Amino acid sequence: MKPTLFVLAAGMGSRYGGLKQLDGLGPNGETIMDYSIYDAVRAGFGKVVFVIRESFEQDFREKILKKYEHIIPAEIVFQELDKLPKGFVLNPERVKPWGTNHAVLMGKDVIKEPFMVINADDFYGRESFAIMGEFLQTIENEKNIYSMVGYRIGNTLSESGSVARGVCSSDKDGFLTSVVERTAIARIDGEIQFTGENGEKVVVEDNTPVSMNMWGFTPEYFDYSESLFEKFLAENQSNLKAEYFIPWAIDHLIAGGKVKVKVLDTPSKWFGVTYADDRASVVEKIKQLVDNGEYPEKLF
Predict the structure, then answer these.
(1) Model pLDDT for residues 12-54, shown as the tens digit of each residue
(2) Which residue in 140, 147, 243, 298 has its CB near the most CB atoms, within 10 A?
């Protein structure tokens, strides 16, 4: 059974000021997401599921889904604030989305095979899809063995300013032990550094693995996510800004001894438009990949 690609795109409308302005960065107006779909198809993925908001369903079907209909089977699911477990009622003052792992939960009824989760607007690179696709096909009949593509931190920095990254630690067998969010990461005087908990300078090696929200799961992860979401809601009832992120859930599952998460090293360079000033360099990076023959000039 081929694995499924699950694309988190519910933030798309607000982030881009409407789908009409979904940014074309490739030579023929391709979006970053187009490159992800292309890479997933050649890595052997058999289906793509997008999680979006109902408010832009029609726009999404016309502008995005149509593009892929002859490329790979595609469907959509919806992330909405009121999609909560039984017994929980939405606080009317809540406006912030529930976060990435709530988005993942929305795929429960349509994904029955191993699947990979990515952000819609991050460029992950061909090798990363191939590495994850191969891993997911080896765990098709297993449970509780997940994976995360660990990008080398030096391959994820922005030239326009500092970034936040989930810095990963793993055991001797390459399984994840923790993901710690670090902020203000930048290359200064040739060294990659961030500010530690006590304000001290911490220097990290270029090949230190970081999470860029590229995860591999088998379907029982939905059941874990559901019960952990109830725990999260019970703990954060009065916090209107708390978000249910994938690393939060993964940390709980690892600490409880329920799952193992293999950290998959990738040589791919991650990039995205973190700052407005990043756009020109992203366009240039994609052009270089096309010029080098990694992608055709026109994808679809």
Answers:
(1) 767 666 676 678 999 999 999 999 999 999 999 999 999 999 9
(2) 147
- CATH code, 144: 3.90.550.10
Whether 298 is covered by a domain: the verdict is no
Predicted local confidence at residue 140, as pLDDT = 80
- For residue 258, the model assigns a pLDDT of 97
Assigned domain for 124 exists: yes
For residue 100, pLDDT over 90 is answered with yes
| Total count of domains within the chain | 1
Percent of all residues in the chain with a pLDDT value above 90, rounded to a whole number = 82
Domain carrying residue 67 = 4-291
Residue 171 to residue 181: CA distance in whole angstroms: 18
Q: Is residue 297 in a domain?
A: no
